[in-house]
Structures are given as structure tokens and as C-alpha cells.
Write a structure and sequence with these properties.
Layout (H helix, E strand, L loop, with lengths): L1 E5 L2 E5 L1 H16 L5 E4 L3 H8 L5 E4 L11 H7 L1 E6 L3 H10 L6 E6 L10 E9 L24
Parallel strand pairs: 3-4, 3-5
Antiparallel strand pairs: 1-2, 5-7, 6-7
């Protein structure tokens, strides 16, 4: 598990539990290690860190943000796509990139820790299986630029 800041609030994010759950579901479905995970904020990074498969992350579902992952990699290895339920940009991009897939709901509860109570987080996810051909990394809505990155 990990801590994720939300404004001034700190809460316990179920990263360890999410990594375990997604990895188990992937392996059960495809009998192969999870090689690539993508999505919005927090969830894919937590899965990559905590999963025993340590998949590569397609940051924000963007090849521009993750040039080490190619369309051919996703077509060959598949991808687990996961978004926080509240991350509408992630869900929109997931549907645009992989229109043949439907986001399913997943609730994951963090185990209580010494300083933080357990909490439940809600996600949307789907799996694109290995050997898929319907991969297009050009259809995403870009993330807004930070103020310090915008041209004057």
C-alpha cells in the first residue's frame, strides 16, 4: 500500500492490494505474466510497483509519456487498463484507444495500517489480451499542460 496526497488530506491508497488483485485476475485470464499496465494517476504505478510481474507502465495511456512502450508491445503482450472511478479523462481515453472493450467496476479495500485505517477505492478496468490487433495509441485526449509548461 502507499500514501497518496489529495489536496491537504492524506489517505491510504490500496496499492499493494490493487497490484495483487489485478495481477491475479490477469494471470487467471491469460496464464501469462502481466507485462504492461496503463491508465490514469496512481493505479498503474501502484500495480507496477507491487505486482510480482513488475509490468511497464503506459503513463496516462500515452505513448508520448511512455515512449518505451510501442503499439507492437501492446499488441503482443496485451495491457491491463485501470482508472480511478473518478478519473473521467482516463476512462474517456481508455474507451477511445480500445473501443471494443468495456470498463468494469472494481472495488479494492486497503488493509488497515498502524497509522491509517483501511479504506476502499473504486476503479474501472479492462484487459486487452495478448496477441490483440485493435491497438491505436493516437486517439487520446492529451493531459492539460502545467502552468509552467505553457508557452506565453
Amino acid at each position: 500500500s502507499g500514501l497518496v496526497a489529495s489536496g491537504h488530506d492524506m489517505y491510504r491508497f490500496p496499492g499493494k492490494e490493487l497490484g495483487r488483485e489485478i495481477t491475479t485476475m490477469w494471470r487467471d485470464a491469460f496464464q501469462t505474466p502481466l507485462r504492461i499496465v496503463g491508465g490514469g494517476h496512481d493505479a498503474p504505478d501502484s500495480i507496477a510497483f507491487h505486482s510480482p510481474d513488475h509490468p511497464s507502465v503506459l503513463q496516462h495511456l500515452s505513448h508520448e509519456w511512455s515512449p518505451w512502450i510501442s503499439k507492437a508491445d501492446i499488441a503482443r503482450d496485451g495491457i491491463a487498463v485501470i482508472c480511478l472511478e473518478s478519473d473521467t479523462r482516463c476512462a474517456k481515453n481508455a474507451k477511445a484507444l480500445f473501443p471494443g472493450h468495456t470498463l468494469a467496476a472494481l472495488a479494492v479495500k486497503a488493509e488497515p495500517g498502524l497509522f491509517f485505517p483501511g479504506s476502499e477505492r473504486h476503479f474501472l478496468y479492462f484487459f486487452v489480451p495478448p496477441d490483440s490487433k485493435e491497438v491505436d495509441l493516437e486517439k487520446i485526449e492529451p493531459l492539460p499542460m502545467r502552468a509552467d509548461q505553457q508557452s506565453e
